[in-house]
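Encode chain A's predicted structure.
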Amino acid sequence: MTITLDNLDFLASSAGLQWLEQVRHEDLSDSQTLRVLNLLRRDLSPQHAGAVLEMARLRLKAVAKFGSAAERMWFTRDALEQASDPQVRHYRAKDGAGLQVVDACCGIGADSLALAAAGAAVLGLDNDPVRVRIAQMNAAALDLSATFQLADVRDGLPKADLVFYDPARRDANGRRIHHVEHYQPPLALVKDWHTDQSHARIVVKLSPGVDLQQLESYAGAVEFISVQGDLKEAILRLGGLEAGDMQATLLTPEGVHVFQREGAPPAVPLSEPRRWLLEPDASVLRAGLVGDLALELGGTLLDETIAYITTDTRRETVWARAWPVLDWMPFHVKRLRAYLREQGVGRVTVKKRGSAVTPEALIPKLKLHGDESRVLVLTRCRGNPVALVCGEMVY
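Encoded structure for chain A:
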């Protein structure tokens, strides 16, 4: 169901609000679609009935990103999917405190309103009239001050201290767009904005899987952000940081953690597995800072191309998960099976990095029986396949 301006007018009316409140208490699962629509169509047109059901479902889905505020906000399905993670939204919003900010391609206003809540004077621009209307409605629903206008950002931007740019990373059919110059609009727009002295800083939201080679001509700093170990997005910053800087940012309930390289990339030695195996946070991996983290933790790498760190002692850090290494061996199914049987291992969890062997293929071949459990890590050491037998992960 597509949300239109006519639908929004109805949904925001007293009658529409009453229906949304009534439907909120219904079972809105897919299996109940026909029943709920039949209920609504007793008094509403098919179009308005569909709009009520769609908005009610979107509000339920939006709780994960907007909490209890979702029940009074407005959405479209694709705009909700594009909305930033709430912790990332609020982290980034601090950059705009006290500044004049333009939110280019503002969508339904999620980032604009986070910026406004942080004390920024925000102007949100988008070329979709439905999204602009929804952004205005969301500002009113949350009692936040922000201005939203219908505009094509390809025609230029007004003066601002900070520009936040969030281009669409999916096409009209919902398929992911993998090249930054195919974003809608393309990333190249920021080059024109950056040369305009009226824009001091530009922050661009990118896919966390962005190909860094596509950013080489932008002379900006790149930040990868994860939330409690889950990689959420990449940020390109023009102005304010040294060009070429790479930063890993980890958001946890305890606060914001930042990891950056100081100086030239370090030369980290390789070694056989030691007593502990560490898996760096995904933000460290994407920022190319695994060697830097290994050096900080007094660790070594198993292989130049594998993002595992190994240490003699457990080093507590927010930047990596750790497993005690009980034993290790060159990977061979028969040898591994014999070893696990000897140890009475009946259950294994298989992790892999740099190995073509899948857990689904390996576990049946091990023919395990016993009361013990282990974590098997299939990886490479100095280019050779190995199996590490580990205890449970230690936080």
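The radius of gyration is 25 Å.
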